[in-house]
Amino acid sequence: MEVLTLLEVIAVLWVTYLVVTWWLERGRLSQLTDKTVLITGCDTGFGNLLARRLDQLGLRVFAGCLTEAGVAELRQSCSERLQPIQMDVTSSDSVEAAVRVVKEAVGSKGLWGLVNNAGILGVAGTMEWATKGDYQAVLNVNLLGMIDVTNKFLPLLKKSRGRVVNVASLAGRFSTATAVPYSVSKYGVEAFSDSLRRSMTFFGVKVHIIEPGYFRTEISNLEVVLRRLDHAWQRQSSETKAEKGEEFLQAAKDAMVARERLKQDPAAVVDAMEHALCATHPRSRYVVGWDARFMLIPISWLPTDLGDLAGKLTAPPKMRPTPVCYKDGQ
Asked: Mind telling me which residue stretches traverse the membrane in this protein (predicted)?
Protein backbone atom coordinates (compact mmCIF):
# COMPACT_ATOMS: atom_id res chain seq x y z
CA MET A 1 0.00 0.00 0.00
CA GLU A 2 2.84 2.39 0.87
CA VAL A 3 4.52 1.63 -2.47
CA LEU A 4 1.28 2.33 -4.32
CA THR A 5 0.86 5.62 -2.48
CA LEU A 6 4.40 6.65 -3.38
CA LEU A 7 3.79 5.86 -7.05
CA GLU A 8 0.58 7.88 -6.97
CA VAL A 9 2.42 10.87 -5.51
CA ILE A 10 5.14 10.60 -8.20
CA ALA A 11 2.48 10.35 -10.92
CA VAL A 12 0.66 13.44 -9.62
CA LEU A 13 3.90 15.41 -9.39
CA TRP A 14 4.90 14.37 -12.91
CA VAL A 15 1.55 15.32 -14.42
CA THR A 16 1.64 18.63 -12.56
CA TYR A 17 5.11 19.32 -13.92
CA LEU A 18 3.98 18.57 -17.47
CA VAL A 19 0.92 20.80 -17.18
CA VAL A 20 2.85 23.71 -15.68
CA THR A 21 5.60 23.36 -18.31
CA TRP A 22 3.04 23.26 -21.12
CA TRP A 23 1.39 26.40 -19.77
CA LEU A 24 4.65 28.32 -19.36
CA GLU A 25 5.90 27.34 -22.83
CA ARG A 26 2.86 28.95 -24.45
CA GLY A 27 4.08 32.45 -23.56
CA ARG A 28 5.63 34.60 -26.28
CA LEU A 29 7.94 37.58 -26.06
CA SER A 30 6.53 40.98 -26.90
CA GLN A 31 8.27 43.52 -29.15
CA LEU A 32 9.86 40.94 -31.44
CA THR A 33 10.58 43.69 -33.97
CA ASP A 34 13.21 45.02 -31.55
CA LYS A 35 15.14 41.74 -31.65
CA THR A 36 18.11 40.94 -33.90
CA VAL A 37 19.20 37.39 -34.70
CA LEU A 38 22.21 35.98 -36.57
CA ILE A 39 21.83 32.57 -38.20
CA THR A 40 24.65 30.57 -39.79
CA GLY A 41 24.20 28.10 -42.64
CA CYS A 42 21.32 29.85 -44.40
CA ASP A 43 22.02 28.74 -47.99
CA THR A 44 19.55 25.84 -47.62
CA GLY A 45 17.81 23.70 -45.04
CA PHE A 46 16.86 24.69 -41.50
CA GLY A 47 18.80 27.94 -41.57
CA ASN A 48 17.17 29.14 -44.77
CA LEU A 49 13.69 28.30 -43.52
CA LEU A 50 14.30 29.90 -40.11
CA ALA A 51 15.61 33.11 -41.69
CA ARG A 52 12.41 33.41 -43.72
CA ARG A 53 10.21 32.58 -40.71
CA LEU A 54 11.84 35.19 -38.45
CA ASP A 55 11.71 37.76 -41.24
CA GLN A 56 7.95 37.20 -41.51
CA LEU A 57 7.61 37.64 -37.74
CA GLY A 58 9.28 41.04 -37.98
CA LEU A 59 12.67 40.29 -36.40
CA ARG A 60 15.83 41.74 -37.87
CA VAL A 61 17.82 38.85 -39.30
CA PHE A 62 21.43 38.53 -40.37
CA ALA A 63 21.54 35.37 -42.50
CA GLY A 64 25.02 33.90 -42.87
CA CYS A 65 25.49 32.12 -46.20
CA LEU A 66 28.56 30.30 -47.45
CA THR A 67 27.93 31.12 -51.11
CA GLU A 68 27.15 34.23 -53.10
CA ALA A 69 24.19 32.38 -54.61
CA GLY A 70 22.71 31.89 -51.14
CA VAL A 71 23.10 35.58 -50.37
CA ALA A 72 21.47 36.60 -53.64
CA GLU A 73 18.54 34.21 -53.23
CA LEU A 74 17.63 35.45 -49.76
CA ARG A 75 18.12 39.09 -50.68
CA GLN A 76 15.71 38.68 -53.56
CA SER A 77 13.01 36.73 -51.73
CA CYS A 78 12.90 38.39 -48.28
CA SER A 79 12.17 41.83 -46.89
CA GLU A 80 14.71 44.57 -46.29
CA ARG A 81 14.80 43.61 -42.60
CA LEU A 82 16.74 40.49 -43.55
CA GLN A 83 20.40 41.12 -44.36
CA PRO A 84 22.19 38.14 -45.90
CA ILE A 85 25.96 38.16 -45.44
CA GLN A 86 28.59 35.84 -46.87
CA MET A 87 30.11 33.98 -43.96
CA ASP A 88 32.40 30.94 -43.71
CA VAL A 89 32.36 29.61 -40.15
CA THR A 90 35.70 27.83 -40.71
CA SER A 91 37.44 31.16 -41.39
CA SER A 92 38.13 33.38 -38.39
CA ASP A 93 38.58 36.37 -40.70
CA SER A 94 35.15 35.77 -42.19
CA VAL A 95 33.57 35.43 -38.75
CA GLU A 96 35.25 38.61 -37.50
CA ALA A 97 34.00 40.49 -40.56
CA ALA A 98 30.45 39.32 -39.73
CA VAL A 99 30.89 40.49 -36.12
CA ARG A 100 31.83 43.97 -37.34
CA VAL A 101 28.75 44.16 -39.58
CA VAL A 102 26.37 43.04 -36.83
CA LYS A 103 28.02 45.18 -34.14
CA GLU A 104 27.68 48.30 -36.26
CA ALA A 105 24.01 47.52 -36.87
CA VAL A 106 22.88 46.69 -33.31
CA GLY A 107 25.01 49.21 -31.43
CA SER A 108 24.53 49.23 -27.66
CA LYS A 109 21.38 47.05 -27.85
CA GLY A 110 23.41 43.94 -28.50
CA LEU A 111 22.42 40.76 -30.31
CA TRP A 112 19.33 38.90 -29.11
CA GLY A 113 19.89 35.54 -30.79
CA LEU A 114 22.68 33.47 -32.32
CA VAL A 115 21.65 30.29 -34.15
CA ASN A 116 24.59 28.00 -34.88
CA ASN A 117 23.07 25.99 -37.69
CA ALA A 118 25.88 25.58 -40.24
CA GLY A 119 26.84 21.95 -40.66
CA ILE A 120 27.97 19.25 -43.08
CA LEU A 121 27.54 15.48 -43.10
CA GLY A 122 30.99 14.58 -44.37
CA VAL A 123 32.11 11.14 -45.50
CA ALA A 124 29.63 8.26 -45.52
CA GLY A 125 30.56 4.72 -44.57
CA THR A 126 31.94 2.87 -41.57
CA MET A 127 34.52 4.13 -39.12
CA GLU A 128 37.49 2.55 -40.96
CA TRP A 129 36.63 4.38 -44.16
CA ALA A 130 37.14 7.85 -42.68
CA THR A 131 40.58 9.46 -42.67
CA LYS A 132 41.93 12.04 -40.25
CA GLY A 133 41.24 14.63 -42.92
CA ASP A 134 37.59 13.53 -43.07
CA TYR A 135 37.23 14.07 -39.34
CA GLN A 136 38.98 17.43 -39.52
CA ALA A 137 36.76 18.69 -42.34
CA VAL A 138 33.56 17.92 -40.41
CA LEU A 139 34.87 19.17 -37.07
CA ASN A 140 35.99 22.46 -38.64
CA VAL A 141 32.41 23.27 -39.61
CA ASN A 142 30.18 21.50 -37.11
CA LEU A 143 32.16 22.04 -33.91
CA LEU A 144 35.22 24.30 -34.17
CA GLY A 145 33.36 26.75 -36.40
CA MET A 146 30.47 26.84 -33.94
CA ILE A 147 32.83 27.49 -31.04
CA ASP A 148 34.60 30.29 -32.90
CA VAL A 149 31.34 31.98 -33.93
CA THR A 150 29.92 31.72 -30.42
CA ASN A 151 33.01 33.10 -28.70
CA LYS A 152 33.21 36.07 -31.05
CA PHE A 153 29.53 36.99 -30.70
CA LEU A 154 29.25 36.45 -26.94
CA PRO A 155 30.01 40.10 -26.03
CA LEU A 156 27.03 41.22 -28.14
CA LEU A 157 24.82 38.50 -26.64
CA LYS A 158 25.78 39.50 -23.08
CA LYS A 159 24.67 43.07 -23.76
CA SER A 160 21.13 41.95 -24.51
CA ARG A 161 21.09 38.93 -22.17
CA GLY A 162 20.21 37.04 -25.33
CA ARG A 163 20.03 33.44 -26.47
CA VAL A 164 22.26 30.92 -28.22
CA VAL A 165 20.61 28.11 -30.19
CA ASN A 166 22.95 25.27 -31.18
CA VAL A 167 21.86 22.64 -33.68
CA ALA A 168 23.08 19.23 -32.50
CA SER A 169 21.50 15.96 -33.65
CA LEU A 170 20.19 12.63 -32.45
CA ALA A 171 23.63 11.49 -33.70
CA GLY A 172 25.05 13.45 -30.77
CA ARG A 173 23.20 11.22 -28.34
CA PHE A 174 23.25 7.89 -30.19
CA SER A 175 26.29 7.17 -32.34
CA THR A 176 25.73 4.79 -35.24
CA ALA A 177 28.30 2.79 -37.20
CA THR A 178 27.99 5.09 -40.23
CA ALA A 179 28.73 8.82 -40.68
CA VAL A 180 31.10 8.58 -37.71
CA PRO A 181 32.86 11.98 -38.14
CA TYR A 182 29.44 13.64 -38.14
CA SER A 183 28.45 11.88 -34.94
CA VAL A 184 31.76 12.75 -33.27
CA SER A 185 31.22 16.41 -34.12
CA LYS A 186 27.68 16.41 -32.74
CA TYR A 187 28.77 14.80 -29.48
CA GLY A 188 31.17 17.73 -29.24
CA VAL A 189 28.32 20.16 -29.89
CA GLU A 190 26.40 18.63 -26.99
CA ALA A 191 29.36 18.95 -24.62
CA PHE A 192 30.16 22.51 -25.70
CA SER A 193 26.51 23.57 -25.39
CA ASP A 194 26.14 22.11 -21.90
CA SER A 195 29.31 23.86 -20.72
CA LEU A 196 28.27 27.11 -22.37
CA ARG A 197 24.79 27.01 -20.81
CA ARG A 198 26.21 26.52 -17.32
CA SER A 199 28.78 29.29 -17.80
CA MET A 200 26.36 31.82 -19.26
CA THR A 201 23.80 31.57 -16.45
CA PHE A 202 25.91 34.17 -14.61
CA PHE A 203 25.42 36.62 -17.50
CA GLY A 204 21.75 35.99 -18.20
CA VAL A 205 22.47 34.40 -21.59
CA LYS A 206 20.37 31.29 -22.28
CA VAL A 207 21.64 28.35 -24.34
CA HIS A 208 19.34 25.92 -26.15
CA ILE A 209 20.11 22.66 -27.95
CA ILE A 210 18.13 21.43 -30.95
CA GLU A 211 18.36 17.67 -31.55
CA PRO A 212 16.68 16.79 -34.87
CA GLY A 213 16.07 13.29 -36.12
CA TYR A 214 16.08 12.43 -39.83
CA PHE A 215 14.67 15.35 -41.81
CA ARG A 216 14.35 16.36 -45.42
CA THR A 217 17.25 18.79 -45.98
CA GLU A 218 20.18 19.21 -48.35
CA ILE A 219 22.56 17.60 -45.86
CA SER A 220 20.68 14.31 -46.29
CA ASN A 221 20.24 14.60 -50.06
CA LEU A 222 20.18 10.98 -51.26
CA GLU A 223 22.12 11.56 -54.48
CA VAL A 224 24.91 13.37 -52.64
CA VAL A 225 25.10 10.78 -49.85
CA LEU A 226 25.28 7.88 -52.31
CA ARG A 227 28.00 9.66 -54.27
CA ARG A 228 30.04 10.16 -51.11
CA LEU A 229 29.55 6.53 -50.18
CA ASP A 230 30.89 5.41 -53.57
CA HIS A 231 33.84 7.79 -53.25
CA ALA A 232 34.71 6.45 -49.80
CA TRP A 233 34.45 2.87 -51.06
CA GLN A 234 36.66 3.43 -54.10
CA ARG A 235 39.55 4.77 -52.06
CA GLN A 236 39.62 1.75 -49.73
CA SER A 237 42.33 -0.91 -49.91
CA SER A 238 41.67 -4.28 -51.51
CA GLU A 239 41.83 -5.86 -48.05
CA THR A 240 39.08 -3.60 -46.72
CA LYS A 241 36.92 -4.24 -49.76
CA ALA A 242 37.36 -7.98 -49.32
CA GLU A 243 36.53 -7.75 -45.62
CA LYS A 244 33.31 -5.85 -46.21
CA GLY A 245 32.32 -7.30 -49.55
CA GLU A 246 30.29 -5.75 -52.37
CA GLU A 247 27.16 -7.00 -50.61
CA PHE A 248 27.91 -4.64 -47.72
CA LEU A 249 28.19 -1.65 -50.03
CA GLN A 250 24.95 -2.48 -51.80
CA ALA A 251 23.16 -3.10 -48.50
CA ALA A 252 24.34 0.29 -47.25
CA LYS A 253 22.94 1.94 -50.38
CA ASP A 254 19.67 0.04 -50.07
CA ALA A 255 19.34 1.13 -46.45
CA MET A 256 19.84 4.77 -47.42
CA VAL A 257 17.25 4.50 -50.16
CA ALA A 258 14.80 2.85 -47.76
CA ARG A 259 15.29 5.66 -45.24
CA GLU A 260 14.01 8.19 -47.76
CA ARG A 261 10.43 7.43 -46.80
CA LEU A 262 11.27 8.19 -43.16
CA LYS A 263 12.33 11.77 -43.81
CA GLN A 264 10.22 14.31 -41.96
CA ASP A 265 9.07 17.85 -42.68
CA PRO A 266 11.83 20.30 -41.62
CA ALA A 267 9.18 22.77 -40.47
CA ALA A 268 9.08 20.93 -37.12
CA VAL A 269 12.74 21.80 -36.49
CA VAL A 270 12.14 25.43 -37.47
CA ASP A 271 9.23 25.51 -35.00
CA ALA A 272 11.62 24.44 -32.24
CA MET A 273 14.20 27.04 -33.24
CA GLU A 274 11.55 29.76 -33.30
CA HIS A 275 10.29 28.73 -29.86
CA ALA A 276 13.82 28.81 -28.43
CA LEU A 277 14.22 32.39 -29.67
CA CYS A 278 10.73 33.81 -29.14
CA ALA A 279 9.17 32.03 -26.14
CA THR A 280 9.16 33.57 -22.69
CA HIS A 281 10.08 30.19 -21.18
CA PRO A 282 12.02 28.18 -23.80
CA ARG A 283 13.37 24.70 -23.21
CA SER A 284 17.04 23.98 -22.71
CA ARG A 285 16.82 20.99 -25.08
CA TYR A 286 14.46 20.24 -27.98
CA VAL A 287 14.26 16.66 -29.26
CA VAL A 288 12.53 16.92 -32.65
CA GLY A 289 11.17 14.07 -34.77
CA TRP A 290 9.42 10.80 -34.00
CA ASP A 291 12.56 8.76 -34.70
CA ALA A 292 14.63 10.75 -32.23
CA ARG A 293 11.95 11.03 -29.56
CA PHE A 294 10.59 7.48 -29.59
CA MET A 295 13.46 5.33 -30.90
CA LEU A 296 17.09 6.41 -30.85
CA ILE A 297 17.12 8.76 -27.87
CA PRO A 298 15.37 6.14 -25.65
CA ILE A 299 17.90 3.55 -26.86
CA SER A 300 20.67 5.90 -25.68
CA TRP A 301 19.22 5.68 -22.16
CA LEU A 302 19.67 1.90 -22.02
CA PRO A 303 22.68 0.24 -20.41
CA THR A 304 25.53 0.23 -22.91
CA ASP A 305 25.37 -3.47 -23.78
CA LEU A 306 21.61 -3.34 -24.33
CA GLY A 307 21.96 -0.23 -26.47
CA ASP A 308 24.61 -1.94 -28.60
CA LEU A 309 22.37 -4.97 -28.98
CA ALA A 310 19.46 -2.81 -30.09
CA GLY A 311 21.68 -1.11 -32.66
CA LYS A 312 22.90 -4.48 -33.95
CA LEU A 313 19.40 -5.93 -34.23
CA THR A 314 18.10 -2.93 -36.17
CA ALA A 315 20.98 -2.97 -38.70
CA PRO A 316 20.27 -4.58 -42.11
CA PRO A 317 21.51 -8.23 -42.05
CA LYS A 318 23.74 -7.79 -45.10
CA MET A 319 25.58 -4.84 -43.56
CA ARG A 320 27.96 -7.14 -41.71
CA PRO A 321 31.61 -7.84 -42.53
CA THR A 322 32.52 -10.86 -44.61
CA PRO A 323 34.66 -12.99 -42.23
CA VAL A 324 37.46 -13.60 -44.76
CA CYS A 325 39.93 -14.39 -42.01
CA TYR A 326 37.92 -17.51 -41.10
CA LYS A 327 37.46 -18.88 -44.59
CA ASP A 328 38.77 -22.32 -45.49
CA GLY A 329 38.67 -23.42 -41.84
CA GLN A 330 41.24 -20.86 -40.68
From this structure: 6-24
